[in-house]
Amino acid sequence: MAKTSLEMVEEFKSFIDFVQELKTIDEEHWNSPISEGKWSLKDVISHIMLWDKYFYEEGIEKIKLGQSVTVRHLNFDEFNANAREYAKTQTRDSIIKQFFEYRNKIIDDITGLPEEDYIKEYKDGDRKKFSIRGYLRGFISHDKHHKKQIEKYVKSIQ
């Protein structure tokens, strides 16, 4: 059965508590690869935060303001490489703070929207369909993917 918008928002929101728990991990472990050949914990959270920032500024905020959605299909490899470079310039706490800021902005803007606004389809910057429901569906699974990786890493360092 398809999840309601409220259930999807709650699931999207739950990642905030998960990241909050990661604050107890020291900087050294935040800067170490989560497994051989993988990114560091800081890289992963930076990557998630920057995707949240992008979709907030180019999608969710535009919808809230009644403006045209400007989300475009980006080169994922390039975006993610830039996220890793950005992470190098930040501390653990600054990455976490920025993650909270953008995730909460998205949640604040979509909480309480009528169901029809969740499923409404907008044309994005590439003239493709964009909906809040589709965005949430994609990023909840993205969060779950990284959460599994992080949980495995956290178990390995305890």
Describe the structure.
The chain is mostly helical. About 70% of the residues lie in helices and about 5% in strands. It is built from seven helices and two strands. Strands 1-2 form a two-stranded antiparallel ribbon. Helix 1 runs antiparallel to helix 5, helix 1 packs parallel to helix 7 and helix 3 runs parallel beside helix 5. The longest helix is centred in the last third of the chain and has 26 residues. It starts with a helix and ends with a helix. The relative contact order is 0.19. The model has no long low-confidence stretch (mean pLDDT about 95). InterPro entries: DinB-like, DinB/YfiT-like. Pfam families: DinB_2. This is DinB-like domain-containing protein.
Short description:
By secondary structure, this protein is an all-alpha fold.
What features would you highlight for this structure?
single chain; 158 residues; mainly alpha; two-stranded antiparallel ribbon; 7 helices; 2 strands; 70% helix; 3% strand; DinB-like domain-containing protein; DinB/YfiT-like
Structural class: mainly alpha
Number of strands: 2
Distance between the termini: 38 Å
> Low-confidence parts, pLDDT < 50 over ≥5 residues?
none
Proportion of beta-strand residues:
under 5%
User: What general form does the structure show?
Assistant: globular
Strand ordering within the main sheet: 1-2
The total count of helices amounts to 7
Largest sheet: 2 strands, antiparallel
What series of H and E elements makes up the topology? HHHHHHEEH
Taking all Cα atoms into account, the compactness measure Rg is 16 Å
Pfam family, one: DinB_2
Domain DinB-like: 18-150
Organism: Paenibacillus albilobatus
Protein name: DinB-like domain-containing protein
